[in-house]
Every structure is written in C-alpha cells, then in structure tokens.
Amino acid sequence: MMLGLAVGDALGATSEGLPPHKRFERFGEIRDYLPHRWAGNRPVGLPTDDTQMAFWTLERALEDGRLLPERLAKCFVSRRIFGIGNSVRGFVSNARVGLPWQEAGVESAGNGALMRIAPVLIPHLREPGPDLWADAALAGMITHNDAASISACVAWVSILWRLLGMRRAPEPGWWLEAYVDAAREIEGPTLYRTRSPHFGHYEGSVCDFLEQEVARIAAEGRSAREACDHWYSGAYLLETVPSVIYILMLHADDPEEAIVRAVNDTWDNDTCAAVVGSAVGALHGREAIPARWRSGLLGRTRESDDGRVFDLLAAARKRFG
After folding, report:
1. Domain 2-320 coded CATH 1.10.4080.10
2. Could you list the pLDDT tens digit for every one of the 321 residues in the chain?
3. CA 153 to chain centre
4. CB 299 within 8 A of CB 13
5. What Cα–Cα distance (Å) separates residue 37 from each residue in 42, 46, 81, 121, 278?
6. Nearest in space to 280 (alpha carbons), one of 164, 121, 135
7. Alpha carbons 278 and 111: distance in angstroms, whole number
8. How many CB atoms lie within 10 A of CB 148?
9. Where are the alpha helices (DSSP H) in 97-236?
10. Which of 7, 23, 125, 268 sits CB 3.0–4.6 Å from 235 for a disulfide?
11. Minimal CA–CA distance to 12: which of 243, 206, 287, 307?
C-alpha cells in the first residue's frame, strides 16, 4: 500500500500539473521515472509532498504507537515540504502564529489530506475498531478542516482496509459504491462547484457528483483520459476523487496500467497516482509493483535521506504487521 503510494508519487513528480495532452507532447507515454534535476538528472524516483507527509505520518505512528494529532501537526510544521500546496501552506502559517492544531487546518476541499491518509490504517491492522475512523478524520482535519476532505479520508481508509482482505480486483461498480457508502453521511449536504466548463451548472456534494457523472461516463465507455479531461483532474476533490475512482474502475486488475494511467491522464498526476498506487498496492501486494519501479525508487522523505522509506516500512512490518 505505502510502496504503491510512493511509486505513484515519484512517477508523476517530474511532470506534475501539465495538461495530459501537453505532457504527452513533451514526454510521450510515461511508463518509467523521468530524469530528475535533484538527482543529477538520473531517471530515479524522488518524492513530493505526498510521499513526505504520508511517511512522516507513518514515522510518527512508529514513535508514538498511535496517532497523536498534535505531534503529527508539529512534524508537518517543522520540516521542509516539497511542492507544498496552498492549503497546507495555510495550515503551516496558522500553526506558526500560535493556533492549536484543532484550529490551524483550513476549510479546503483540496486533495492534500487524502494523498497522505493511507498510513493511518497501519497501527490498526491487528485490532481494527472505531478508533480507526476517528484517526482518519482527525489526521485529515489537521490540514484540511472540510467536510469533503474529512469524508474522503475516512472513505479511502475504509476502501484500503477492505482491499487488504481481497484476493482479486472487485467489480468496477464496487469502487463507486464503496466510496459513496463510506463518505456520504460524513460529507453531509455540502455544496461544491466544479471548475470544468462541462459542469458549470453543478453545485452539490462530491458523493452526488460521483453517482451522477462517474456512473454516466462509465456507461458511455469513455477512456480514462477522456473522463479525466471531461471533469478536469486537478488538486480539488471534486476532480481528484472521480479521476481516481474511474481509473480504478477500468484498470484495478492491472497495477502497472492503473498507475500509468493516473500518471499520464490527470493534471495533478503525482497525487492521483499516489492514491491509485495505494489502492493497487493494498490489493495486489508488493510483488505486483514492477521491479524496475521499486529498484529505481530512492526512498527519500527529505533532501538526502536515501532509503528512509524502506527503513520505515521494515519497522512498520515489525511493529504492526
């Protein structure tokens, strides 16, 4: 699960934020790490904020034995975050002027909490219970104190938990149903507007958008690229969640292709690929992630701590596995 997240993030890191057609014009179809300027232009996997914040969450869980939101918040504030998003930057600013962690998170439906939520599950592997859902909500609200974000974090943890117990990919419709079933009550009657010109009329919840638009696009048989272009696929949950769900509906049975589609077919491709990677990693296991991606991942969480990702995973297996 965590390795899939790190690999997806690293594959998308060097072309993040480009429209898919512009990315293809510049790089062709991306199926491997691109040369990275922070690694002497070697084609290796380096992290963005997705990997950093996810593995720092795991690091704190190893230190503390469970989620302690105040300590995790202090970790996020005290370290350099690569490609920090606006919402996390707002949280950091609030915390640095003295707001407690409960009040420092901004009201944002960005995807910056969803991208790092997977490790919240790990301390609960032996004894899952209600505390897992509380931890998912609290971990998310540290930076993004918003109904759509908190519900997305809880829903994604629920999906990952269920995937860990599966032996094969679920039917395509499962992804949509599993997300909406877990998120709807928490999200409540929130109203969000789309940024895509195709949906200028829409104002409603993320769950309603998924049920209306993802189901319709699936019925039309659109490709991942067509679908993600249609509703846009930036760092906004009304775009990220449909993109992730639809890619998994089409490609969850093929971990490599699922991550490749997220890397190539979305705008915020490092985060979409990290979230997709967490799902296919949880579902299919480590060996299903191509060996060339695993060997090319430097495993950093900071500027030069090569191998830290792998050390944390080994420690987590020993403590929580």
Report:
1. yes
2. 999 999 999 999 999 989 999 999 999 999 999 999 989 999 999 999 999 999 999 999 999 999 999 999 999 999 999 999 999 999 999 999 999 999 999 999 999 999 999 999 999 998 878 999 999 999 999 999 999 999 999 999 999 999 999 999 999 999 999 999 999 999 999 899 999 888 767 899 999 999 999 999 999 999 999 999 999 999 999 999 999 999 999 999 999 999 999 999 999 999 999 999 999 999 999 999 999 999 999 999 999 999 999 999 999 999 998
3. 9
4. no
5. 8, 10, 17, 33, 26
6. 164
7. 15
8. 27
9. 101-104, 130-141, 147-164, 172-187, 206-209, 215-220, 224-230
10. 268
11. 243
- 204's enclosing H/E stretch is strand 203-204
Paired strand residues for 45: 297
Where do the structural domains in the chain lie, given as residue ranges? 2-320
Q: Is 286 helix (H, G, I), strand (E, B) or coil?
A: helix
57/76 Cα distance (integer angstroms): 9
Integer CA distances (angstroms), 229 to 175, 245, 274, in order: 20, 14, 19
Question: What single DSSP character describes residue 302?
Answer: S
**Residue reference for tokens 């679920």:** 170
Query: 86's torsion region: left (phi>0), alpha (psi -120 to 50) or beta?
Result: alpha
> Sign of the CA dihedral 229, 206, 249, 294?
positive
One-letter amino acid of 76: F
Spell out a b/e string for 153-173, using b for 16 or more CB atoms within 10 Å of the CB, else e.
bbbbbbbbbebeeeeebbebe
Which residues sit opposite 193 in a β-bridge? 203
> Which of these, 219, 71, 38, lies nearest to 139 by C-alpha position?
71
